[in-house]
Amino acid sequence: MKLKINEKMIKIKELNIEVTLPEEYTGQYNKIEIPKGFRLIKLRELLFIWETEKYRKVLFEGYLKNPDYYIFYCEQLWNDKQNERSRWLVLDWDLGLGSVWDHLDDSSSYGRVVFVREKK
Question: The whole model's pTM is what?
């Protein structure tokens, strides 16, 4: 599934990155096509955005207004790579957060992707 980069990028000056708005994605984690010059968001970056009100309001605005079960795919952690697992941040109906993993072979789901590029 080919994803297009949103024209609107959110600058996270504290992390020296720019992020795209979340894009819906259905398919296997290891089949996500990452556009040139970008990477998947890291779990800790997504948590930082969630914990910082000014960024949370922009990136998660629609999800806060309509709570549901949302999956955000993240870059694999070191141990995920060692064990061939995917990494997700889950935003639950009650706005609880959880970090979840799945085996790459079983990681066919629906979710959202956020791409990141380092600021120059």
Answer: 0.86
